[in-house]
Amino acid sequence: MKKLTTLLFVLVFASSMAFAQNNDADVDQTGNNLDAEVSQLQNQNSADVDQASEQDAISLESSVYQDGFSNSATISQDQDGEATVKSSSANIEQIGNNNWASQSQAMFQNNSNHDHSVRQDGNRNWSNQSSTSGYSVDFDVLQVGNNNDAEQVGNSASASGAEITSLGNGNVAEQTMANLKNDATIYQDGSGNYAAQDQTGPTGFMGNGNTADIEQLGNNNWANQMQDGNNLNATINQYSSGNWADVSQTGFGSTATVTQN
Asked: pTM surpassing 0.85?
């Protein structure tokens, strides 16, 4: 009887552990030189990190790692008042299916070296990264799997770069960067992909020295690039049948290249 009771307890405990896999992490930091790190290794995980600098700061750093099924992660970094932030980084890595990642940074124009990165390995992933103002801002997304979606927006960020790499089928990538001397790159390897890049100048002005590159390997892909300004460069490379490209440039001193095989 004692052995049977012990066995029943083990079964009930194991069953409860199997279902108790929902982890929630909420991190709020305010001050100078902030660092937040979240690691979740179960299913149905949720992480929310908010950082705000109210004084001069050397760095703001946030990272979220999730390994499981149906995960969501959000990182928000803000610069308040007249504070100066020398550098900031926001990184999300998700392994599993049905993942959702969102990152945003709001910095003053005179602050530089701000990095966003998202890594998603699995099916049905979604990511969004955005930055307001600042310069030398880097966006980087890597998605491995099917039915992926990546969106990146850089408002008033100059001398910055945005890159999306999608390895899988049914991927969608959109990038919008509004300012000067920005580079945008989309690489998709798979069929049924769609890529769109839109580069303009700051509010009330034309862009200058912006570069947009797209390379698609697979069937039924199409790419659309629109640039507004001067000294612009747009390149689209599509390798396979059924692809089409639409490039629109407004201004002078610009070049556009389309290669389809």
From this structure: yes
